[in-house]
Amino acid sequence: MRWVPPTFPLIPPSLRHPLSPLLEEFVNKLVVLKIGEGSFEQGFPVTFQVGEENARPATEVTGKLLPDQELPGLYQQWQMAYRGMGLRSRLSAPDAQVKNVSLLQDCGKASALLRDRLNAWLQAEPFRPIREKWLEKLHPSDTIRVIVQTEDMLLQKLPWHLWEVLERYPQAEIALSAPAYDQVSHHSTPPGRVGVLAILGNSKGIDTKADRVLLEKLVDAEVRLLVEPSRQDLSDRLWEHPWDILFFAGHSSSQGEGETGKIYINQTDSLTINQLKYALRKSLERGLKLAIFNSCDGLGLARELADLHIPQVIVMREPVPDPVAQTFLKYFLQAFSSGEPLYLAVRQARERLQALEEQFPCATWLPVIYQNPAEQPPTWQELKGTEVDPTTQPLSAPLLRPSLRFRWVIALSLTVATLISGIRYLGVLQPVELRAFDQLLRLRPEEGTDSRLLVVTIDDSDIQTQPQKGQGSLSDAALSQLLEILARYQPRVIGLDIYRDRPVESGQKTLASRFKQDSRLVATCKVSDTESKVAGIAPPPEVPGDRVGFSDFLEDPDGILRRQLLFMDVPPDSLCNTPYSFSLQLASRYLATEGIEPSFTQEGNLQLGKTVFQSIHPRTGGYQGIDAWGSQILLNYRATRRPVAQVSLSQVLSGQINASAVKDRIVLIGVTARSYGDYWSTPYGSGPAEKMAGVVVQAEMTSQILSAVLNQRPLLWVWSQGMEIAWIGIWSLMGGTIAWWLYGRRQSSKQTMTWVVLAVVVAPGVLCLICFGILIQGGWVPLVPAILAIAAATSTVSFYQNFRSQRLT
What pLDDT sits at residue 742? Predict the structure, then answer.
């Protein structure tokens, strides 16, 4: 026997798959913990090796396990408590099964003490370099085979799977190994069915029929059953036929100090491994890859089989009750024959035993793999002989990660984010983003009306009841009377939102004088637009230019008002030559009485007090490539159906209004008659009954300025383009990570797809809540692109992983 390093032979360059450079990211990891000679009184030297499967170790570090004389005693206490429960097992069936709640509790306490002591031992300072190197070199998503290589029998008996580090690695499984091993040449497996030699030995007091049923249900397997065979019959079957898997169910036990084992093949005969040595060697030469002893106390059997260099052995480390043995076999065969790597199939089946631990404590401790490090664990497909040509097949499944490395998830997710950001940049998503923005605006909590404003409305009945007819919506006589009444009530500002490009009649000298001299009065006009061939409308001739504001609105392509124009460069030939908007004129005069005067920043943005009104750009929020001429801001409507108080012209003229409703307010006068058509679509509605009167829109705009300056109500803001792309990338990465994580859980394709669909539904819901919360604070962040990124990244990663799985199995 020769000693060789615990690495697998390198694939010769001539046999490497042509896509090997691309597939190197998906190579599994192999970890070897070589525990040297020592004792629990003196401690043990440890060498930690980690690298990729099928390659030499890339990292090696040494450490030490401290002396711990209590650990053996705690193991013996647990073993005594476990065996003292008297559970009917496949060791040597007792005449009666003892069930005692206190005994079950004693076993649970002993197992907890042993687990805690083991983890404390593995957290000691001399072992820390190994622990830190593990955490540095291995990712929780890695598929890892861990081999604990030691000759010490008690070290092999310890429950290494309870090491707390392994809890972070759901695709890692522990195996045991002897320090000395060898690789045995054997015949390659011809394509066909998996050959299984199943020995059902002495079954007195136990039920091996369930094992038989599970084996007979295997697909693509040729199962030869030997029920309580004679020694000669068993030997002949091993000599005369090639087998891939050797299976035993029945009574077995370890002998002496656990160095050897014995199986009971029938009611009268028992055999040691040594007594089958030559037959097993012959079977090994003919292709035996895996031995499963679904029986009790199998570590002695495993150690003897290791001397024969059997590639992989699965045994039960302690006496095993029938239900535990049968459940493990059921889930192991189900996972392994479905394509799971051997180690992960064992881990899945072992962890599923947890459901039995209320009745059978420590059931998950029992199954263990005993590995020949010179051999490669086979897949079910390899046992069938369908993955033997590395030049025509992808690298074998155990060498390949069943799920993508996370860097590939990042690459795919960011690719998706880039594509969606590009589509967004082209303006394709603008209509949908604006609609989503409107919906979030409508969901905001109620704000109430702005008490600083009052709107005097002029409806159809008001027009009909005016003293003079034929002068438009508001006659000079009615307007003069209205302004006189309002002036008595001392408003701060009066805004006349009615176009009057004609002089005051000669008989209305009081009105003409008020237009010229009343500093509280602001009139409106409309700017000419040469591109759309709109001539514009001049302001009242009597009103000075510094008390005039333009009333122009900015409609989006879908006809909805979402932006507010503060000031602009007016064409020289425009009939309306004021550079400031009507709403800004009203708000500035109101704020002037508060000692707040307008100014401009170095960037040319309007500033009132401490509030800066940042002008939007062609690409702002969901807008992509809009005409951002002048100084435009996003219009943050008040979250209410009645943003300002309203009173009709008739009510004011007839004295049905209190002075307190006018005093110190901004009073806007405007037409609300449906026949005049001054109604506009807003995020709150675009139907005939939902549109907002133009004078109310002006009140909304004025209110936004006042509230931002005086109440610190947030203006609507957006992120920079870089921030928005990063935001989309984050959600894309989240979607890809969800798919990657769900795939890594190794459920069935149907279960995985169900969870993926659920994630695609839940994640956007969470995203909507986040975006809504940000909007309440004034932020408009990308919602629709992020939802698309989640869905697209999840689908892309899921599709690519399924595609890879089909190619690599």
Answer: 73
